[in-house]
Amino acid sequence: MTQQYREHLLFKAIQCLVGAGHKSGGLPTSSVSGEAEQLQQQQHSGTIVSNVLKYTSLPKDTLWADEDERDTNVVWWADVLETAVHWLLGEDTLAEQLYGRIKQMPTQLQQCGENDHLPKALHAVLRAKMILLKNNGNALDKSLKQLVNILCDESSVQLQECLTVNRITDAKGIKLLFQLLTCDWLLETRTALWELEHMNMEDDGFYQVPGEVLEKFQTDLNSLRSIVENIPNAQSRIYLYEAVCRLMAGASPCPTQQLLDRSLRSRNAHSSIFCGSKDRRHQNFVGGERERASAMYVACKYLPPALLSSPGERAGMLAEAAKTLEKVGDKRKLKECYQLMKSLGNGIGSVKA
């Protein structure tokens, strides 16, 4: 029962982090303590990101010194999620302290590599992200860039092994969400590498990445497609990264705009965010808030101004992206959003940094 309780809390934590909805985790209410139920009821009192920390703290409180190794592995998974939260909150010192505990995988997780490739996939991309974050948005030197790419490639191969097993065992629940997190981080890291290259380009034309880089990005995008088949409200990620892939390829911006538009729409909203809709605040979004904010950010940063419906549309989209990121608790991306506002000279005084 205690193990089920820990797994349920871990499931709720990653559900919050990846924005995969707030439906029941599949366990009967009786298997979850009143403490966890109270957390779920209070979920909207904090940001989506900060709620992860509430859930990850509880499994650790139930561990004792004589626990078997299988249950103490929960601490490693929980620490991975907490590290991700501190990254999003811009709390780099806390993230580095936690990373010191998780950079070495527990022995049992290392030994189960032939049967479960997920820990190694997550661990490799975790290392890649830490290198990028330690670099504080500066261009990587050749050796670091090579190391990040090697780690991403290793993670990608391990993730593909996971997806092969999925077709046999029908993975679901917490394992599927950790696969989604791994794939998210892979695509985020490859996108960040591209943006660092794009930032250093002297001209403002369409920069096309080498074919090998694009092929690896598309491989991870295909992995994402496979994962979200079983997570319907994660579909907005597909459109977002398809758009990023087109930007990396230097493709025509009009279809790219359409993909970003699809990422921004909710299931119940049919108007385009690029068509001057004045009441986007009331669209019925179900999960994926970070991805929608990212889509607005990408549109404002990379699409030609002529594709946006009016001169004020870019400012409005950035303001909305900022509000969404503030709600989610992604302070790191929020900072990037404010920097873009300043660089574009929007003069959005109603949104405070």
TrEMBL record:
Domain of life of the source: Eukaryota
Entry annotated with the keyword DNA-binding: yes
Keyword check for Hydrolase: no
GO terms for cellular component: nucleus
Cellular localisation: Nucleus
GO molecular function, one term: DNA-binding transcription factor activity, RNA polymerase II-specific
Keywords from the named record: DNA-binding, Nucleus, Transcription, Transcription regulation
PANTHER family, A to Z: LP12374P, STEROL REGULATORY ELEMENT-BINDING PROTEIN
Name of the protein this chain belongs to: GD14826
GN (gene name): Dsim\GD14826
